[in-house]
Amino acid sequence: MEMKNNWRTAKAATLLALLSLGACKEHGEPAGQTSARAQVSVVVLRAQSVPLSTELPGRVVASLEAEVRPQVTGIIKQRFFREGSDVREGEALYQIDPMTYQAAYDSALAALQKAESAVPAAQAKADRYSALVKRNAVSQQEYDDAQDVLAQARASVRAAGANVEAAKIALDYTTIRAPISGRIDKSSLTAGALVTAGQATALTTIRQIDPINVDLTQSSMSFLDMREALEAGRLRSAGGGVEVKLKLENGTTYPLGGRLEFSESNVSPATGTFVLRAVLRNPARLLLPGMYVRAVVDEGTIPRAFLVPQRAVSRDLRGEATALVVREGKVVQLALGGARQYGNDWLVDKAVLDGDQVIVEGGQRVREGDAVVTRRVEIDTATGAIRPAAPLAGVRDAGAPASGRPLLSRDRQPNRG
Hints:
Elements: H1 2-26, H2 33-36, E1 38-44, E2 48-68, E3 74-79, E4 86-87, E5 92-96, H3 99-134, H4 140-173, E6 175-177, E7 182-184, E8 194-195, E9 204-219, H5 220-232, E10 243-247, E11 258-263, E12 273-280, E13 292-309, E14 313-315, E15 321-327, E16 330-335, E17 340-342, E18 345-348, E19 357-361, E20 372-379, E21 386-388, E22 391-396, E23 406-408
Parallel strand pairs: 1-20
Antiparallel strand pairs: 1-19, 2-9, 2-13, 3-5, 3-8, 4-7, 5-6, 7-9, 9-12, 10-11, 10-13, 11-12, 13-18, 14-15, 15-16, 15-19, 17-18, 20-21, 22-23
Helix pairs in contact: 3-4
């Protein structure tokens, strides 16, 4: 009797379960389906024009540099400049004892006067013989000799004049002048020192530092990638010259911008790099030759790119950047080939579609192909914190029921850092 009652109880329970299942099917929603769909926070990706720049290492170089050396031999009598000051082209820097050079100039001048005094007599004799030879009063030989004497006298004047000029130049060289304008270094010698013409040791060095040059180093691989992107249309040249901004060694930004002036036409076989030269104004003399800097160089603009939040990007087993997006309510994993860091985001111009919802929170709980419920958020660009996005009227989240909450979007400008 007891076994019969147990059998009836089990049969009733089975019948009740079948009725419940049928009721669920009638309403078109299998039991447990809603609870199985994970909720993820997403940011909507929109195509936008993104300015692109690259950061290159560089060294500050004087725009002009001249080592000052004596061009005559002698004893330094006086130094006229203050070390570390600015000097102008042609300004007197040193005075070499001019006595011997003054004497040489005076002697050359006297020789010139002597040569000039011989010309009138030679000219008169030549003129007289020219008239006499026509009357056969003198021989042709005597006439030719008179002409030769006149020519030699004139040549002696020219030679003496050249000697005077050379002596004057040597005398002028006893005053050593600045070959360029700029800031002058310390002096390597003092008054009383003997210097020689063209000596190996420079007396001092002058550098022009306003404007000033910065030599930047770029790899040939980066150059080829940029050229390929330009030719393929993924990168649009800014035109009108390439702008450059500097970051100093202490992390501060140099207040004045500059432009690229030229690039070398050869690549170093040892390093695989070549040099770009930027020119900047330097009125405050903040940039000094030899300083290490980093330059932010504008490469152009990517006309259609996406900024993927950094927290949405992970690495696969091969070390490649990937991200999870939601398309038609299901999770899709994307390989972000060619992605590069752009401020707090990743810059992507491939694989991503306009309107893709990239998962920024909850991605560890889902796999590719899973159906999910999305909650749209925005990310604070300063702190990286997630917060609910402002609702967009008339739009709802993909994968959410029709009666669900309005669609939320990420409203921010591209980070141009």
